[in-house]
């Protein structure tokens, strides 16, 4: 349940003012080296007149770079005369994690995408989530939370939405997903942790998208290009940009879904994982996914792991070493019905 207490973050940004403002959110953080210190999280607002509001966010996880780069570029190039309404941009939402290039914050170990709706009295990561949920999302018509696989996973780039259980909201999010026009669009058709940014947006009845645009701790050029074009089509969908300002989609969208935990394959033991399939490959239930090898005990036979269902490999582990329970693959299937 969202807290009714006010946020502890503050800013010199005036969210209601026309024009372009690029500044910081200040998150009080008192430590030995800085008694009155602040974590300064970059924020930009581009506004012209009345109209819809869209929040664009990256850096939810700090080691996911395509969205961070695309939003930094957008901040430098988007001007008030180009918009109708308001665009709010958080290019590095969990700034400590973004600066460290890590999935979670080095300050408190917080995973921002597992902290929503947040707590204004909690650790820094939880307070960031609370600000986004209690201050920004209530003023929004649309929200896009840009991700990738980070250091541990590699994805085929896609944009996505998560089922909310609200038919009208799901219809609005699906329309926004089609407007983003990725080559692959994923519908997360099963309930997750309930503490995602998408969960908060769904609770606020805000049409919202996510997406995984690369991974392996690198910068995927095609992922950056997909985000750059897609967010302009997303803004045009809400009427914030003119349609002519958004590049056309490069082709048709393949609509797919992820139905449950059986779409995932996990390492059964500690060791080195040798994959048996590649990204984009179609597989069937029972097919070999790979082996875990025991380099410290080479006489021991490797342990196989197998797919539990048919589908296309949309994600694979990017790191060789695994521990029991690490995700090594997950699948997607074409949308049924």
How would you sum up this structure, described in words?
The structure is a single chain. This protein is about 20% helix and about 30% strand. It has about 325 residues and is an alpha+beta fold. It has two domains: about 250 residues, Zn peptidases (Aminopeptidase, 3-Layer(aba) Sandwich); about 70 residues, Beta Barrel (OB fold (Dihydrolipoamide Acetyltransferase, E2P)). It has a 15-stranded mixed beta sheet that branches. It has a four-stranded antiparallel beta sheet with strand order 16-15-13-18, with no helix packed on it. Strand 1 and strand 2 form a beta hairpin.
Give a quick rundown of the structure.
With 337 residues, the chain is of the alpha+beta class. The chain has helices at 66-77, 95-100, 124-136, 167-180, 197-203, 221-237; strands spanning 10-11, 19-28, 38-48, 53-57, 85-90, 142-145, 153-155, 158-162, 184-188, 207-212, 254-258, 264-266, 271-275, 282-283, 288-293, 303-306, 311-317, 321-322, 327-334.
List keywords for this structure.
337 residues, alpha+beta, Aminopeptidase, OB fold (Dihydrolipoamide Acetyltransferase, E2P), 2 domains, 15-stranded mixed sheet, 4-stranded antiparallel sheet, 19 strands, 20% helix, globular
């Amino acid at each position: 349940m969202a807290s009714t207490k006010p946020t502890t973050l503050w800013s010199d940004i005036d969210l209601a003012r026309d024009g372009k403002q690029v500044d910081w959110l200040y998150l009080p953080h008192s430590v030995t080296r800085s008694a009155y210190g602040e974590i300064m999280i970059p924020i930009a607002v581009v506004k012209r007149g009345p109209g819809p509001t869209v929040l664009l966010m990256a850096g939810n996880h700090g080691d996911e770079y395509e969205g961070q780069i695309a939003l930094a570029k957008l901040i430098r190039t988007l001007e008030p005369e180009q918009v109708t309404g308001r665009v709010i941009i958080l290019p590095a939402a969990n700034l400590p994690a973004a600066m460290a290039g890590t999935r979670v914050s080095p300050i408190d170990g917080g995973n921002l995408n597992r902290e929503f709706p947040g707590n204004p009295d909690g650790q820094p990561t939880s307070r960031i989530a609370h600000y986004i949920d209690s201050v920004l999302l209530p003023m929004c018509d649309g929200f896009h939370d840009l991700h990738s696989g980070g250091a541990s996973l590699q994805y085929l780039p896609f944009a996505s939405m998560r089922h909310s259980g609200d038919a009208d909201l799901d219809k609005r999010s699906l329309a926004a997903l089609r407007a983003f026009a990725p080559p692959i669009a994923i519908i997360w058709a099963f309930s997750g942790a309930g503490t995602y940014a998408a969960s908060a947006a769904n609770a606020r009845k805000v049409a919202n998208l996510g997406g995984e645009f690369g991974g392996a701790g690198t910068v995927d050029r095609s992922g950056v290009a997909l985000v750059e074009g897609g967010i302009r089509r997303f803004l045009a969908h809400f009427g914030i940009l003119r349609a002519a300002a958004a590049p056309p989609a490069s082709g048709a969208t393949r609509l797919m879904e992820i139905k449950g935990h059986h779409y995932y394959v996990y390492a059964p033991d500690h060791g080195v994982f040798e994959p048996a399939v590649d990204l984009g490959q179609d597989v069937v239930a029972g097919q070999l996914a790979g082996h875990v090898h025991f380099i410290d005990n080479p006489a021991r036979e490797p342990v196989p792991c197998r797919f539990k269902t048919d589908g296309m490999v949309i994600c694979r582990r990017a790191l060789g070493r695994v521990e029991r329970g690490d995700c090594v693959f997950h699948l997607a299937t074409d949308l049924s019905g």
